[in-house]
Write a structure and sequence with these properties.
5-stranded mixed beta sheet, 21 helices, 6-stranded mixed beta sheet, 14 strands, 49% helix, alpha/beta
């Protein structure tokens, strides 16, 4: 294995030195040397590196073959277990393989296959999050299945790690003990992998929701198109070091656009945009004065991400957009993007976000259970967030007898767990706290009591059983899961509290991208709930509320309204 890895490094150097023939020969030799050894961490890099060389020689069919071989290695359950000190770099490289396959399939004219590669990447991101700890298992689930799946996936990772180390040691130690241990480990690994495949089949019958989480069906663009109305379009972004692709799906077609923006440039622009948007604006700028620093970057981002799509004519007659962000785009307030005429995106379209096409479809296809009834609103921090009291009071006025409002010490985690599962709408007006080292432990702050600590953490939310059509997380940065500032790669960004609530049963989640203004959010929520049946059409209600704030003196600045987003699924098929 060490010899194969060394040949692979030599091949990469030759490729970097513009010597593709030598690189091609070395990659072939490295894979021959590796043989049938189980060494996925080496094998995927060899296949991926060779694919880059082949693509450079215009051998796109062969490049696609090698990239699929690389992904076959990456998709092993064992590779969800990586040493923490190497995790970020490993995952960043790994996501690029999916992106490269999408680019190659686009070059081959196979737009649907390119879209599928983008979806496979997003499905794998979820598995990486789950590998960082155990999630809570709902009481009505086949608990033994879920526990066995988590334990067996970790066992496969440990066996693979042991086997790779044994193969490496075998180059220096020729004793019979090493050979015996490697052979025994290999047999154990093969048995564990067979057991895992059988377990997934059983899980689809006995624990379908968990099976969909760890081994989801990958959506096709045709499945997306069937669920789109004539006034809607679906845009999925795929960002890489070389460029950004935009997949555009309407009710009758798919197109892929090369948006020509590298990840490094896009990340810089998104970071700058947030830096000039998120501080509370001074009074002179609250009404969008002409000297506003944020206009330029919002126009540039619109020109990069939206204008090319509009130029194709695919958005003609559309009034609703479903957006699938990627990496740093997770942090971007799309509602605030501004065209050359000075119009914000939310003034022209209703916007909804979703983690992936596969999640969007799965939420729409989820079997209807007993529908939730009523609205539960909790505001556990009225002293430190005085606007939250006004917020839930406004909800009570609008919803009337359907609303149950708990504030202060009464807004406990235990009350939420007891009352929440039966509600159609859940509203949490409180703090959201991020854990960038492990987003499974990000949480929404509720009041503690004798039974619960008041921290409703992501791994606990996965174990809830909700019937809510809408969960509103009116807190600080609840939409952003983790990312660029922590040790979790930015590919895991959207998998935070938002995704956990969707998995728990919510059809839509309204969340925030930055620390929100207390009083402005209270005003927005009053308008949001007053717009009609918010649970049925939260994206429409949010667009109406955002438009109201941006047209009002004092709250026109995007800081007050652009950071709120609706995340959810498709209409029922």
């Amino acid at each position: 294995m060490a010899a194969a890895a060394a040949l692979g490094e030599w091949a990469a150097l030759e490729a970097h030195a513009a010597a593709p023939i030598a690189a091609d020969s070395l990659y072939r030799a490295a894979l021959d040397r590796l043989g049938d050894r189980i060494a996925p961490e080496v094998a995927w890099q060899l296949h991926a590196g060779w694919a880059v060389v082949l693509r450079g020689q215009a051998a796109t069919d062969a490049a696609a073959r090698e990239l699929r071989s690389a992904l076959a290695e990456l998709d092993r359950p064992s590779l969800s277990l990586v040493l923490p000190d190497r995790r970020s770099a490993f995952l960043a490289d790994k996501w690029d393989v999916y992106a490269q396959l999408a680019f190659v399939e686009r070059d081959r004219g196979r737009v649907g296959a390119a879209f599928a590669a983008s979806e496979r990447m997003r499905a794998r991101e979820m598995l990486e999050l789950l590998a960082r700890g155990r999630i809570t298992i709902p009481a009505d689930t086949a608990e033994d299945i879920v526990a066995r799946e988590q334990d067996l996936r970790r066992r496969i990772g440990e066996l693979t790690y042991d086997l790779e180390n044994a193969d490496a040691a075998d180059h220096n130690l020729r004793g019979s003990d090493v050979a015996l241990n490697a052979g025994t480990t290999r047999e154990s690994l093969l048995r564990a992998q067979e057991s895992y495949a059988d377990l997934l089949l059983e899980a689809r019958e006995r624990a379908p929701r968990h099976a969909a989480l760890v081994a989801p069906d990958v959506a096709t663009w045709q499945g997306v198109a069937r669920r789109l109305t004539s006034d809607a379009a679906f845009i999925e972004y795929l960002v890489s070091d070389s460029t950004t692709l935009g997949f555009v799906v309407t009710s009758d077609t798919i197109a892929v656009l090369d948006l020509g923006m590298r990840r490094q440039d896009l990340a810089r622009l998104v970071d700058f945009t947030r830096a000039v948007l998120t501080p509370r604006p001074p009074l002179r700028d609250a009404e969008m004065g002409s000297d506003s620093l944020w206009r330029g970057p919002l126009r540039r981002l619109h020109a990069a991400l939206i204008a090319p799509v509009e130029a194709t004519g695919l958005l003609a007659g559309k009034s609703r957009l479903v957006l699938v962000p990627h990496v740093e785009l997770q942090y971007l307030p799309f509602a605030g993007l501004m065209d050359t005429a000075g119009r914000f995106l939310v003034q022209r379209y209703e916007l909804a976000m979703t983690p992936s096409a596969s999640v969007w479809i799965a939420l729409g296809d989820r079997p209807a259970g007993v529908p939730g009834v009523g609205l539960l609103a909790l505001a556990p921090q009225p002293a430190t967030l005085p606007g939250s009291s006004q917020e839930v009071a406004a909800i009570r006025r609008v919803a009337g007898s359907d609303a149950q409002v708990l504030t202060g010490d009464a807004a406990t985690e235990s009350a939420f767990r007891r009352l929440g599962p039966a509600q159609r709408v859940l509203h949490l007006a409180t703090y959201g706290v991020l854990n960038k080292q492990n987003p499974l432990f990000s949480y929404v702050k509720l009041a503690p009591d004798g039974a619960e600590d008041g921290r409703l953490e992501v791994h606990e939310v996965f174990g809830l059983r909700l019937t809510a059509d809408l969960v509103v997380l009116s807190a600080c940065q609840t939409g952003v899961g983790s990312g660029a500032l922590g040790d979790v790669p930015a590919g895991d960004d959207w998998v935070g509290l938002t995704r956990a609530f969707l998995h728990a049963g919510a059809r839509h989640v309204l969340a925030t991208l930055w620390p929100v203004d207390d009083w402005a959010t209270a005003a927005l929520m009053e308008r949001f709930y007053g717009s009609g049946e918010v649970a049925a059409d939260p994206a429409g209600a949010l667009a109406e509320a955002q438009r109201a704030l941006l047209s009002a003196r004092g709250t026109a600045h995007p800081f007050y309204w652009a950071g709120l987003v609706v995340v959810g699924g498709s209409p029922h098929d």
